Amino acid sequence: MLASVAGEEDPGASFDLPAGTEGRSDQAAGHTGGQPGPARRPMSPGDQAPAGTPGTGETVCPRCGGSGRLGASDCPECSGTGRINVGIGGA
């Protein structure tokens, strides 16, 4: 058995696949790596990250107060949605 420099066992030193698994994917069914995922809303100028990014969440747009409107036009900060995606928590 091989050991690392720190003395731990090297789990990758010997790896045998069970018979019959050749060519079978180890990825979950239903999503192939090269295809795009579900459509997401485009980022607005006020978004700090795309929707669904870990460590982020939606909040009311501070510029329009959540109405999505500034005067007679869509709010340029949230693109008229009234919501923006921002980082939450953190250090």
TrEMBL record:
Q: Where does the source fall among the domains of life?
A: Bacteria
Q: Where is this region: Disordered?
A: 1-91
Q: Which InterPro entries match?
A: HSP_DnaJ_Cys-rich_dom_sf
| UniProt-recorded name of the protein | Molecular chaperone DnaJ
